[in-house]
Amino acid sequence: MYFYKSISDDVRFAQLEFRKHIKAKRLVLGSFLACMAAVLQAAGGFLPGIGYFISPFATLPILIGAMFSLHMGVMSYFLTILMLFILFPSELVVFPFTTGLLGIGIGAAFSFFKKRLSIISIGAILLTIGIMNLLYIFHFPVLGPAVSDSFSFLTAGSIFLFSFLYNWLWAEMALFFFKKLKTIIT
Questions:
Q1: Residue 105 — pLDDT band, cuts 50, 70, 90?
Q2: In angstroms, rounded to a whole number, what is the distance separating the alpha carbons of residues 119 and 109?
Q3: Are 38 and 86 in contact (CB under 8 A)?
Q4: For the chain, which residues make up each domain, given as ranges?
Q5: What residue ranges are annotated as transmembrane (predicted)?
Q6: Three-state SS for 6?
Q7: In 12-30, which positions are buried (b, 16+ CB within 10 angstroms) versus exposed (e)?
Q8: Rg (CA), the chain
Q9: Is the CB of residue 83 less than 8 Å from the CB of residue 38?
Q10: How far apart are CA 70 and CA 110, in angstroms?
Q11: pLDDT per residue over 123-175, tens digit each?
Q12: Assigned CATH topology for domain 8-185
């Protein structure tokens, strides 16, 4: 079955090769990825309308960074949060709980698991927890006014189903971009 197939060892090989680089190169790449993530996340505020279609792509730089090195991914995640705090504070509520957490979760899952189902499930669980924290703890309408901020199992199940499908898409996109970038960076 498709979900139980092992992901190729390209990620682990690239991680080993990436560790051979000097620390300055890794720091510069992590900083560059954080800048890209901050610009993509802030696009929703700078370009109303079309920017909301661009801002979900802020996951990709964090995800690629976490796939090469979990340390670099976490550093890029926190650096992006700091840049959003300075540049566009309104996006600071959404990024740490959804877009950034998704990138860290899938990137970490690529490091620890080999099966697609495990990788997608870890990302889906983290994204579901992040969205539910925003909805039910912080009462931030991340899904718009149509979704109530009072807990419902139907809403929670719908969020998890959406998160699973969304993570499946991101896992496949990450593998595609990773294979393209692997030859450039390593």
A1: very high
A2: 5
A3: no
A4: 8-185
A5: 27-54, 60-85, 92-113, 119-138, 150-171
A6: strand
A7: eebbeebeeeeeeebeebb
A8: 16
A9: yes
A10: 10
A11: 999 999 999 999 989 888 887 777 777 788 988 899 999 999 999 999 888 88
A12: Arp2/3 complex 21 kDa subunit ARPC3 (1.10.1760)
